[in-house]
Predict the structure.
Amino acid sequence: MTDVDTNAVRSFLVAAHADVVETVRDCAAVSATTGTDATGRSDTSAVRRGIETELRDAGVWDRLPTVLVDCVEVVGGRLRATPVAAPPYVAPTATGVVLRGTLERGRLVVAVDALAVERGDEGGATAEREDERTTGVTLRPRPPDTPLAELIRVEWRG
């Protein structure tokens, strides 16, 4: 398996799992709102944690391993292990969620990037405590009319 049709995976997700992609979009939007302060700076760690919490509350988090298995089947592959709703298979990101599957000859990475990253003028990160980092970025929901396919990033790392 050296040549993987990433567009086929993207099209499949839009056709078969549009509800999941929409829910990721909605949950990320809520998390971005609550994880962004009055100055417009987003706490990327808080947004990431919030996305996972929102997806759990919406009942989608535990469905994501099945979505990963479906994507792997689209490319004609088979996972080496049964995925679970936890890293390395499923992980929240500051912009949405990422699904990773290791196959015999490479790795399929599928991301739903529901939030856009806007870099601030300050660039670097500031932190009073290492685990509560606020960066010079703002995370914003993508416009509601953005086609689902544009939220999905698929990579083959062979």
Observations:
- DSSP finds five helices and eight strands in the chain.
- Residues 122-134 have pLDDT under 50 and may be disordered.
- The beta strands are 90-92, 96-103, 106-113, 115-119, 125-126, 134-135, 137-141, 152-157.
